[in-house]
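Q: Got a minute? One more chain.
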Amino acid sequence: MKRILLGLAVFMVFIGNAQKSETMNTIAVSIDDIKATVSFLASDNINGRDTGSDGIDKAATYIEKQLASFEVKPYYETYRDHFKVKALDAYNVVGFLEGNDPELKKEVVIIGAHYDHIGLRAKVVNGDTIANGANDNASGTATVLAMAKYFGKAKTNKRSIIFALFSAEEMGLKGSKHLAERLSNEKLNMYTMINYEMMGVPFTDRSYQAMITGYDLSNMGEVLNDHVGKELFGKSDEAVKYNLFKRSDNYAFYTQFKKPAQTISTCDLTNFDFYHHVDDEADKMDYDFMATIINDLFPAMEGMINAPTQEIKMNISND
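A: Always. Here it is, folded:
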């Protein structure tokens, strides 16, 4: 009888893994998917997605339509979370996917990226004045939208997910600060926040493929590596040197919730020459790499979102 039960258990695990693999194969992100998103957001028609501009309105509308097509609902009455930056009207784009577990769905994972950039530049470079922001941060936005498509179609998430695309990051992290404060005041039960920043080019000299800022603050890197089954994530000395943990949209959620909130990136400025430059163009992104790493991210994120307990823990304080 014990052998029969053991065999049945092994068979059920095999079936479960096969179904999970089939789901991932069905919803895997393609190179064309990623290229289409980055190319739209970084096109000259969007004029660099500066906060308060017509271009960022077009970008927000594009993101809203994508979320709706993935069956991700608005978190608030509409997708847009409005705030002011001085006299400018600004808005984050915020979607929500409820978890399917009656208890775990009360916990929320936030997956975010900023979709704004720096707009038009005064200095002309080879006849160009548009800072298109392909790597910074159309690539991160494309990563979040790929996550929204995966979970929106698969419906495998036990915890609830907020997909947050932030504006006014380039003006001092204003959008994430606004949303983090709002969600904190609303008593959101946040488990963790993962932010995506500059995902368009690979490292060339690392054992890992993506860095996690504030790596030693939590065990996030270790947990996600365990779920994906390889060293996908690591610690960047450059990120430590320039304290990149405090320089992206994860930081507001850390300060408000005092829980793990970190940025994943494949660029620490040592491997990309066009940061805040008009040559940060869509044709400079490595779409083969982007599709590969995003598909690798799916099991890491899904494992973390569906774990029966909160595996990611703070190690030390960064106050």
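A: The longest strand covers residues 88-97.
Q: Perfect, thanks.
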